[in-house]
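S1.2 Input.
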Amino acid sequence: MSVLTILGNGLDLAHGLKTKFDVFMKTLPIEQQGKYSVFRNKDNSWNCVESKYEELLRTIMDSREWKTVIDEVDCIRDGYGYNEYGEIDYFGYDFDGCDKELDEISDLISLLKDFENDFLEYLKLRCNDEILKDVSPIKSIFEIVRQSSRIVTFNYTHTLEILYGAKNTIHIHGDIDDSIAIGSGAMADAKATKVDYEYPKPGDFSNDKEGLIERQAYYTYDSSGRLVEAPVLKRFFDDAVASANKKENELFNLLETKSKDSLEERKHIIDTLAGEHYDMVYVIGHSLGKADLNVFKAINKDAYVVCTYHCDTERAEREEILKRLGFECEMISDKKMYV
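S1.3 Output.
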């Protein structure tokens, strides 16, 4: 039987390791806690830093206002006019419709990186391999590790290696020996353009005098008497479109800076899981949070899933998520698992 085991922070907590963000934050000075206050949840805890970070990103992206390239062009044309060469008298145009969001997200990413580095130092001090040597293993985990064909852990510690001698553990988000990755899930749906890139059509102008005059700026007649785009304005418009598109792409790429799904190791694991088949999957101590669901979506849906939970609310939530993903599952209380 082929067995995949996926481990989350609940396993480290079951071994008495103080790996919660909330516990870590309480070890920091008040001023340091204030620095990271934007990652607080409504209950004033830091337990869901990653989901809070994603929420902040989405708030920034959702608050973007629509920008229309033609409005920008009109404003510059009206303000600067044409030079002696017949070109719009404005050079070095740089679209600034994304600058506010670029600055806000850059600051947020820098803050999360600082948090990540501080948390890594905390783990190296409080949850290192030497400390693990004094921790008692859990009997039931031994058997699961023994029969597992592959083990994927979302934890940064070496609990599996030190306590259970696991040789095939994959730290999907890094470990304390190297670096760790804290971030959001996929942000593809947030990459919605808020720029209208369309050049006005002849029919967009009114038929009154003002509309006809305006149309003359954008359209002219060629030697055959056909209405065509005015070369001068179209050149400037195309430059403005290119600048706006470049800035939007910078913004969209910035969203991937701390996206877990952009991590090479994680992408590799997702691709690998998609090409493998498992009869059983153990999900131990993992919350099935939104940021990590792409990993579970890659697993074959005829696998039988055994998933742990801590309380009745968690049981209902995790069972609902697994069934929505298409799995047949069995829920086991961590009180029964961790014996």
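S1.4 Remarks. The CA atoms of residues 23 and 122 lie 10 Å apart.
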